């Protein structure tokens, strides 16, 4: 493993964790849902537009995907939020779980579709 990959993942991971924290502070339990849905979209877009087209250096892709988006969308925050909601309302926890799973798939699909469509547009104008 190259040092620049490690440094990139660590630096971007710090930023991703800070962004998730800010969303959680602004929107409470909904902030984690927002972060996860946005992260699903961004990771799909990054993968299908930036990485597939080889637009950035590998260390930067690792930092953005694994570091920034990985820390932004942590599974531990999702789990903790679901348990917290479940202590107050099983229905609320179930709705949050369903929104996260289905919404995450939808957002990842939208990210992929936008990336592919944008890629075709760029190729047509080149």
TrEMBL record:
The keyword NAD does not apply. It is found in: Cell membrane. This is Fluoride-specific ion channel FluC. Na(+) is not transported, but it plays an essential structural role and its presence is essential for fluoride channel function. Na(+) binds at residues 70, 73. The chain crosses the membrane at residues 7-27, 33-51, 58-78, 90-115. It comes from Limosilactobacillus pontis. Belongs to the fluoride channel Fluc/FEX (TC 1.A.43) family. It catalyses: fluoride(in) = fluoride(out). InterPro entries: FluC. It comes from the Bacteria. Fluoride-specific ion channel. Important for reducing fluoride concentration in the cell, thus reducing its toxicity. HAMAP family: FluC. It is a multi-pass membrane protein. Keywords: Cell membrane, Ion channel, Ion transport, Membrane, Metal-binding, Sodium, Transmembrane, Transmembrane helix, Transport. Its main location: membrane. The keyword Nucleus does not apply.
């Amino acid at each position: 493993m190259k040092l620049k990959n490690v440094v990139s993942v660590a630096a971007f991971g710090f930023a991703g964790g800070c962004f998730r924290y800010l969303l959680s502070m602004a929107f409470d339990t909904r902030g984690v849902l927002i972060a996860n849905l946005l992260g699903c979209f961004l990771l799909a877009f990054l993968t299908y537009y930036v990485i597939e087209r080889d637009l950035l250096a590998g260390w930067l892709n690792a930092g953005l995907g694994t570091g920034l988006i990985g820390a932004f969308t942590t599974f531990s925050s999702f789990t903790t939020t679901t348990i917290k909601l479940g202590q107050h309302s099983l229905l609320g926890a179930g709705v949050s779980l369903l929104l996260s799973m289905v919404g995450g798939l939808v957002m990842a699909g939208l990210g992929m579709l936008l990336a592919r469509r944008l890629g075709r547009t760029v190729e047509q104008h080149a």
